[in-house]
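Exercise 7.
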Amino acid sequence: MQTPARPPRSRLTDFVIEELTKRLDGRQYRAGDKLPSEHALCDEFEVSRTVIREAVASMRLSGRLVSKPGIGVFVTEDREKPIDFVVEPATDPRWALHIMELRAGLEVEACGLAAERRSAADLSGIVEAFDAFNRATRDMEAAVKADYEFHLSIARASNNPHFPALLKAAVRDVMLDLNIKHGGKTPEELETYEIRNVREHEAILTAIMRRDPGAARAAMARHLGDSIARYRKLLSHPPAL
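Solution. The predicted structure, written as tokens, is:
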């Protein structure tokens, strides 16, 4: 098996986590399978035992792997996965608010890490999604998909595989739901919303390009904070019956 090119030493643990996660997601290692030995993984990835142990410990914490003393490390059975988000259609602003609060906690930190760690390829992916969003101003469905890809590409650029995994597991369907994103807005409000989105996306992209983690976190917090404030306002002033 050909091993992908290695990243800088400071990111070796994340690199191993990402590669093992790809193998699990691609069913190269299936539920119940035993992973190659620590020695074999060290040889394959050309890293130290410490790197392999840190990667395995992280994946055990996330529930993807389980250690059996004296036997080895195994892929967790599907039923044992601890993260299982059931996303149902929104029935009131409180549900949407909970999702936005979850996104804020996840994406603000991912954005800061992206500014620190992004590669040229990572940045290219973010710019591509940014441009796609700007081209789709008259196509709401395409704009929503491009918006999701913009946020997902930033999560990937954090170079921590758990951020994009959680984003896809927890909020993908919500972010792609037109009724949630645009429901209840007048055409004028929708136009204002899209213009603001473009401006805020640009601020996020600029901070990541400049490798400014503080500005990146602040820009993402402002971006998501507007929606959080809107839902909180709806909850504090429910519509009259």
